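Morning!

This is the sequence you dropped in the shared folder:
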Amino acid sequence: MKSLHLILLLLFGNFLLAQEINYSSKEIAINTLIDGTLLTPKDNTKASLVIIIAGSGPTDRDGNQNFLKSNALKKLAIGLTNNNIATFRYDKRIVKQIRKNKVDKNIMFDDFVTDAKAVIDYFKTNYAFKNIYVAGHSQGSLVGIIAAKNRADGLISIAGAGQAIDQVILEQIEKTAPMFTEDTKRIFGVLAEGKTTTNFPPALASIFNLDVQPFIANWMSYKPQEEIKKLEMPILIINGTKDLQVSEAEAKLLNDAARTSTLKIIENMNHVMVPITGGDLENSKSYNETARTLSPQLIDSIVKFIK
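The structure's back. Tokens below.
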């Protein structure tokens, strides 16, 4: 009898799994640097495509890095594809380099823009999707804004900064470690001149390590508000009220600067796009909890925007 129960449970579980998966999955190598996963709805051969661009750091296609695993971007992709929207998410080039133990120390912010453009061009050339949208998360928002110009049919910014990265970091320093405010301003001044410096407090080494200063300088040369003004396409700007890294004010700056855009502020959604009902401790823990579901309003907002 126990064996029968086990068999029925397995069959029923497989049936539920089959019911949930209504899309096809394909691994695609865009070029030697970029690999990703294309999800295509089975009952919609003329779907729109959303290209998902990850945030800062060595973030993979699923939205994970180092010891932090939330699967946020994987959940976003599946959620959209279950709503008859194709998705493509890819590993940042540094992910592949780390896996091969061949990290390019000269990697620049511009390289991420180059990769995003290559992904858009690949799908425009090789596929016949109805429309192509770019959805950038966090740092990926600015990457997407720049790459989308004259290429994509629409832009979705999720937890993207409205100010240049030096201003964002400076505000964080002023709030959390005000004693380093003047040092931070001085160092950013040096970087703005195209120079580097070894004169920084040890406490700021994680931000101003000599190896990353050229990358920061390249990144801070782009002003998100100026870049989004250049876009002539539908734009959706999303932020959560529980985002510890990017405030609602940043989303509003982008919205004010865009030619035409829709602003969606989602109550209790945090930076990894899940609802948080508690305080900062719960919020921080969620960065490494794969069982959490994304905010339903996030998927709904994007689906409505596209359809």
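Headline: Residues 165-221 form one domain.

More detail when I'm at my desk.
O.
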